[in-house]
Amino acid sequence: SQELEQSPQSLIVQEGKNLTINCTSSKTLYGLYWYKQKYGEGLIFLMMLQKGGEEKSHEKITAKLDEKKQQSSLHITASQPSHAGIYLCGADLNQAGTALIFGKGTTLSVSS
Amino acid sequence: NAGVTQTPKFQVLKTGQSMTLQCAQDMNHNSMYWYRQDPGMGLRLIYYSASEGTTDKGEVPNGYNVSRLNKREFSLRLESAAPSQTSVYFCASRDRGFYSNQPQHFGDGTRLSIL
Questions:
Q1: Residue in B closest to A99 by C-alpha
Q2: DSSP of B25-48
Q3: pLDDT 10s digits, B49-68
Q4: Which of A41, A29, A1, A73 is nearest to B43 (CA)?
Q5: How buried is B18 (Cβ within 10 angstroms: 0-12 exposed, 13-18 middle, 19+ buried)?
Q6: pLDDT tens sequence for chain A (112 residues)
Q7: Which residue of chain A comes nearest to B56, CA vs CA?
Q8: What residues 47-86 of chain A have any CB closer than 8 A to a CB of chain B?
Q9: Mapping DSSP to helix (H, G, I), strand (E, B) and coil, where does residue A25 land?
Q10: Which chain B residue has the Cα nearest residue A33?
Q11: Helix (H) or strand (E) holding A14
């Protein structure tokens, strides 16, 4: 959906390097979800952010939701080949949860 | 711990044939969703069911019908398959509440080719 823009579309990084993926909306986000997808497989839930300024981490992945709740970033520290895949952000555009959209995804490749 | 189960995993149809994609979740979630994923288009919502007994159109509902059979099961039917419906179909479920919503859980997908 064009209402949720992800950047970059694709990314190639050297193993051990840090990287950031962004997810931007023109509307207030009532819930922001990050997923990872390996080629040919389903989506695996990574993290959920709901409050402005919220930050969550899991292993080497950190996600933040800005204060205005219109942008989120996903940061990977010291990337590994296992981080390769497609990262998608999804968001609730209303509190009722009846307007859930996804970005088009960011394809990450990690070279060793 | 099955989560969301989709059947079949792969299917090849001829134009004009019909088929039903099945989805079942064992997490007692109230909301269920059907998406299609195409290269460069991301995930697009076909239909969703906010709660048992209700269904609503999403972004791309034309050519599809759905049935929320019970709280666990949500099926997607193609009445007369067209090549444009070649895609990967994902079913998802989640708990949706008045004050907060939970993330969706996805099935492994159905890869559908229509010749």
A1: B58
A2: ESS--SEEEEEEEETTTEEEEEEE
A3: 988 889 999 989 999 999 99
A4: A1
A5: exposed
A6: 458 999 999 999 999 999 999 999 988 888 999 999 998 889 999 999 998 899 999 999 999 999 888 999 999 999 999 999 999 999 988 887 777 899 999 999 999 8
A7: A98
A8: 48, 50
A9: strand
A10: B103
A11: strand A10-14
pLDDT of residue A94: 83
Neighbours of A45 (CB within 10 A): 16
Q: Count CB neighbours of A23 within 10 A.
A: 27
Closest chain A C-alpha to B64 CA, distance in angstroms: 19
Per-residue pLDDT tens digits for B4-25: 999 999 999 999 999 999 999 9
Q: How far apart are the first and last CA of chain A?
A: 33
d(CA A51, CA B83): 43
A83 φ/ψ sector (left φ>0, alpha ψ -120 to 50, else beta): alpha
Contact between B40 and A104 using a beta-carbon 8 Å cutoff: yes
Farthest CA pair distance, chain A? 44
Residue type, B94: R
Minimal C-alpha gap between A42 and chain B (Å): 4
Sign of CA dihedral A88, A96, B100, B29: negative
Cα separation, B87 vs B11, whole angstroms: 10
- As given in the structure block, the two tokens for residue A19 are 């990287």
